[in-house]
Amino acid sequence: MGHGHSHDGGPPPTLQAAAARRRAGWILAAILLPVTLLTAVGMILLWPGGQHQDLKLSSPYAAAPGVSFDTGKVLSVTRGSCSGGPADSSQSSQGSGASQGSDSQSSQSSATQGAARLSTCFTAVTQPDAGGPSVQVLFNPEVSASDSVHAGDGIRYLNLSRVQQGAVQQGGQAPAYVFVDFVRTFPVAVLAVLYAAVVILVARWRGFRALLGLGVAYLVLAFYLLPGLVDGKPALPLALTASTAILIAVLYFAHGFSARTSTALLGTVFGLLVTAGLAFWATDAAKLLGIGSHEASTLINTSGTISISGVVLCGLIVASLGALNDVTITQASAVWELYELSPGTSAGRLFTSAMRIGRDHIASTVYTIAFAYAGAALPVLIIVMLYERPFLDTLTSAELAEEVVRTLIGSIGLVLAIPLTTLVAVLVVKATDLRRHATEDGHDDGEPHRPHDDALAAIEGAVLTRRELRRRR
């Protein structure tokens, strides 16, 4: 999301502002250190015991003796029927009675076209990466229908030639080389390098630290959350401890150890608790069992310790972390900037001013979440649309209910996190009492030296000068 959080470009803080930040850091440390300690203890108690190591799934790339998965580059592509006949055989039966069957043909035209596309397969002349003569690789109808196979593509294919004694697809024989997947290493690596380069180029050292925090988040997910779910650990405390650990790493890595960051972390933890509570209730109330997908069925058949509803619950919580982090760090920075510009502002007015910024953030971020989830679920949305079901039934169907609940819970947690973070930030900055320590920058008149005092003094001087000139005239 395109919301900037940087506050390094402004002037350096005054002495009393720096002292206030230090005092705020001590106040926040008294709250966050117990939270961090509790998170660490929870992770130790819930750390996976290794039971999942005995659970193994057959790799989709495991092959029988004599069969291998090879890679190669497509040299050329030819189109033909999957059954070996002409590609257009499915369209050759249009009789002369079109006038009496026009309505029937129009209603079935889409289905006929779809069947025709699925009856057409690509056969690619492929040069194996291991060397040797080129081979004929057959693509399945679904990939062929996408028309995305081109010369130069890297593919992974099943090599059955040794089992079939070098047979190729002729007559009724099975094909000797069958497409499995595309080789995507190069484009994905290019995007990853480009992403890291752009982040570091624009955000510089902070961007590099943010990438390090992302790496820590991956480690928490890979070595704690996922194995814990496989071991059957309770989902709610598992998700809370993992999410809190991720937030601590991401926020401090990206934004450094400061009162602003600690304020944002505290507000994010509050928002996380709200989101977790809503997710825990919604998972049971909306019966989000997560059993409608092939992946869920695979997990259920693999182990009886894996709770699919627990997996759904963890997904609802983890999905909200990015948006929560975004809005809380922005709100914390807004409160600090407003306060340091005018330390004499009352807590109520400071909260109101910061919430005006927060409302704009809410308006932009809420539909950002909705669009992100809608984009990820577009295939499901299209399928459900074609069912021609009532709109309410569609939204509450098994296919969409999880996405709808995830969007609603994430949005509620995000909206509530903004006032919570703003309130925490206001309480912290007011507790530092900047005015009491105004003499630290050389002012002993009991009034705070605000960053814009010099400008105000210059304006007042200009006004007094004009009045003096008028009197003399």
Order of strands, widest sheet: 3-2-1-4-5
Count of helical segments? 14
User: Tally of extended strands?
Assistant: 5
The secondary-structure element order is HEHEEHEEHHHHHHHHHHH
Q: What is the domain total for the residues?
A: 2
Work out the radius of gyration: 31 Å
- Amount of helix: 55-70%
Dominant shape: elongated
- Structural class from helices and strands? alpha+beta
Spatial separation of the terminal alpha carbons: 60 Å
Proportion of residues in β-strands = 5-15%
- Low-confidence regions: 1-10, 84-108, 166-172, 435-473
Rounded mean pLDDT score: 74
Report the sheet with the most strands, covering strand number, pairing sense and barrel closure. Answer: 5 strands, antiparallel
Element layout with pairings:
Blueprint: H1 15-46, E1 68-81, H2 102-118, E2 120-128, E3 135-138, H3 141-146, E4 154-159, E5 177-182, H4 185-230, H5 235-255, H6 259-285, H7 294-302, H8 308-318, H9 321-341, H10 347-376, H11 378-386, H12 391-395, H13 401-432, H14 453-472
Antiparallel strand pairs: 1-2, 1-4, 2-3, 4-5
Helix pairs in contact: 1-5, 1-6, 1-13, 4-5, 5-6, 5-8, 6-8, 6-9, 6-13, 8-13, 9-10, 9-13, 10-13
